[in-house]
Amino acid sequence: MIRTATDEDLKSMRPDSEAAVKILCLAEAYGLARSFLRFWCNEDRTLFMSLIDGVATISTISDEPEVDFEELGVFLSMQRDINIVRTSETVANGIVKHCGIDAEYGSVLTPGDGLKKPSETPENLSPGEAYPLLKACFEGLPPFDSWYADVSHRLRHGFCRIVGFRRDGIPVSCAMTTSEIHNAAVIGAVATLEQARGKGYASSSVLTLANDLINQGKKVFLSPKNCKAHELYTGLGFAECGRWANIKLLGRN
Q1: CB–CB of 121/202 below 8 Å?
Q2: Which of 33, 159, 184, 193 satisfies CB 3.0 to 4.6 Å to 15 for a cystine?
Q3: With contact defined as beta carbons under 8 Å apart, do 22 and 50 qualify?
Q4: Is the model's pLDDT at 51 over the cut of 60?
Q5: Would you call 181 exposed, middle or buried from its count of C-beta atoms within 10 A (0-12, 13-18, 19+)?
Q6: How many CB atoms are closer than 10 A to CB 24?
Q7: What is the pLDDT, as a whole number, of residue 67?
């Protein structure tokens, strides 16, 4: 049975996957009592789920979880606030099989033994500087007010960091930890304006974050969105450690 998760439930989670780090970061950054956040788990604590801004993140304790996918599919269909599910390939395959919907897949990477050092040193950027870069490079970004409130909160409380490069005082490239806790982090939101590409800004930003996080004893995850990004990051010394999946629930905005 899937039920509301408690603090005690979440204490049993390990930050050993991208999805787990995202769920734990939300819980640590905001707690479990916020009206805009929800957390669930199953009775044997092998599956955990968070929901914020229409996105449900699902994590399991192993790559071959014992999950009742029929129950999970029914649960997801009943939660009308869920528009997108972010999880592992294995869990997505189970949902797809039982619900007859499609999923988008990609690789989860982590720094390998040959991780390179950055060729340039980025600067810290503010959320207000990063947002226009992300807006120019990505579709579906949340409205500025809600995005800024979330990122600023995480930044102030140590659950996020943003670095990047400026040209003539104007930000042209950025990268950030989209989720960060005391022992793990997810790097994302990597964006460079078209006129500033090819100069190594994105590579240096990502490598700076990754090396700093590793030196602080944190496990690092990164999820490239396409083949070109995958090729870039593996060339920098990242290695595949898992697979991510996005499922858009049919008939929802």
Answers
A1: no
A2: 184
A3: yes
A4: yes
A5: buried
A6: 25
A7: 85
